[in-house]
Amino acid sequence: MEKQDAADESQRRVDPSATGVERALESRFGVVARGSDARTEVLAGLTTFLTMSYIVVVNPAILAGIPGEKPGIVLPGYGVAEVQAMIAVATVLAAATGTLVMALYANRPFAQAPGMGLNAFFAFTVVGALGVPWQTALAAVVVEGLLFVAMSAVGAREYVLGVFPKPVKFAVGTGIGLFLAIIGLQEMRVVVADQSTLVTLGAVAADPVAMLSVAGLFLTVALYARGVRGAIVLGLLTTTVAGAVAAFTGVVDPGVLAVDAVRTGSVDLAALPPVTYDITPLAGAFVAGLSTVDPATFALVVFMLFFVDFFNTAGALTGVAQVSGDLDENGDVPDADEALMADAVGTTVGGMLGTSTVTTYIESAAGVEEGGRTGLTALVVGLLFLASLVLVPLAAAVPLYASHIAVVVVGILMFRNVVDIEWDDITHAVPAAFTILVMPFTYSIAYGIAAGIVSYPLVKLAAGEGDETRAGHWALAGAFVVYFYLRAGGIGV
Question: How confident is the model at residue 187 (pLDDT cuts 50, 70, 90)?
Fold first, then answer.
């Protein structure tokens, strides 16, 4: 009833000379009622899309596996470039789905896409560290999405928020940022393995990949610092072009900084990476994954996906709504369950198509700062994602070192979450620090979250504040202790 009253009020505030399209937009989105206009919403949508469009290239680079080198999605009979193209298509369709649901159902200016950090968790932790088949990992994404749908439908957000320790929630973003940063720096050859110290500085002054990567990283950071729209995309594309020019002019050997098709003085179009829009080998693979489920590991993966997705989305929604002045008197996002539902639908569809968990992007704040206030902003973003299908060939043409510049930059930006942690309270500092440190040092987001959850009630009890813990805190901690004891003991889970 309140929404109908708002729609009626919105129509009364429309300029009498407005066109039929303008009246329809006002009826659907309430643009004028929220202090905006169609032109501002469109520009806001364009701004948001430019700030997050890097995901079309970066998500395939992270999710696609390289046999013997990198964990991820591997399709027998298909090359890495073909798999990347399929994942790029799935990425675009999943992002468009979640964002359009956000626009038309939740009427919020928030954009969605497969989440950074969640894609790394999928490839490096689930498929890599835990040894779960990628098809089963996709099944976990679908199940997590359906669980998210159910929780959003019954409005269980407050209950879920209360189960997880506060310092762990605030620390997850920073821990994932560190994890992403080390993944990116390794691919850029800035950080390399060392037998004595585990990791060390790469040959930055001698390795062409490391040299160009560092230059591209600083260029991207500089563009971002100056507020250039699409800074991350411009940075990785400029680095890619620079590598191709170096290969074309003979500064480096073919295949070092650019795809093998770019050779000294020529470009062999026939040797360019093959691109396909046919995702049938990928879409629906989660069904086969359900047949190889190990209950204990599968439950852990679903739990971790849900945890990171839920709090990433909740944090992004709150952060963006704060920029738009759309929080209520309690600091909450009004009708947040509708926005969470859009996230859940995007995740479910994405898992079915063949990509990792979809989440709300904090980059949506860029569009909000441009004046976006309604779902019309998100509608523009969703349509631009669909239009970006023509960019799918870039997913295969951009070298890994260039795409991982975006990984490092996003990782750096995630460090800012650390300011929300109460570092002067030891019962918050310990679980937060464990969460942040264990993720990169064990190369596992799951282990970091588990370390924080287990340590929280223990340090609370030791500090004489056991009465501040809940039964859910102890239950989660106990479950993780049992799981990792069984796993470390090699008892078949």
Answer: very high
Alpha-carbon distance of 377 to 398, in angstroms, equals 29
Flag whether pLDDT at 465 surpasses 90: yes
One-letter identity of residue 258: A
Distance CA 410, CA 180 (A): 8
- Least Cα distance to 41 among 53, 28, 54, 52 occurs for 28
Region at 421 (left for phi over 0; alpha for psi -120 to 50; beta for the rest): beta
The whole-angstrom separation of Cα 305 and Cα 315 is: 15
CA distances to 27, 375, 409 from 367, in Å: 22, 12, 19
Average pLDDT over residues 172-185: 91
- Residue 326 CA to chain centroid, in angstroms? 23
Q: CB–CB of 339/383 below 8 Å? A: no
Q: Global pTM?
A: 0.86
DSSP for residue 418: G
Residue partners of 343: CB distance under 8 A and separation at least 6: 98, 102, 112, 148, 152, 309, 313, 358, 359, 360
Cβ partners under 8 Å of residue 323, min gap 6: 365, 368, 369
Distance of CA 204 to CAs 220, 247, 266, Å? 18, 19, 28
Residue 94's CB is within 10 A of a number of other CB atoms, namely 30
Spatial distance between the Cα atoms of 249 and 266, rounded to a whole number of angstroms: 9
DSSP state of 117: T
Helix 400-413 crosses helix 55-63 at what angle (to 10 degrees)? 110
Q: How far is Cα of residue 332 from the mean position of the Cα atoms in its chain?
A: 23
- Residue 376 C-alpha from the chain's centroid: 22
Amino acid 240: pLDDT: 93
Give the Å distances, CA to CA, from 449 to 179, 340, 446. 12, 22, 5
Contacts of 228 (CB under 8 A, 6+ apart): 234
Nearest-5° Cα angle at 80, 190 to 57: 65
pLDDT above 60: residue 11:
no
CA distances from 156 to 290, 403, 468, 475 (A): 27, 38, 22, 19
* Nearest residue to 379 (alpha-carbon basis) of 93, 34, 111, 115: 111
The Cα angle at residue 385 between residues 350 and 286, in degrees rounded to 5: 15
For residue 335 the two structure tokens come to: 């009708």
- List the end-to-end C-alpha distance of the chain, in Å, as a whole number: 51
> What are the tens digits of pLDDT across the range 31-84?
888 888 888 999 999 999 999 999 999 999 999 999 988 999 999 999 898 999
Q: How many residues appear in the chain?
A: 493
Contact indicator for 455, 480 with CB cutoff of 8 Å: no
Q: Indicate the domain borders of the chain.
A: 1-35, 36-488
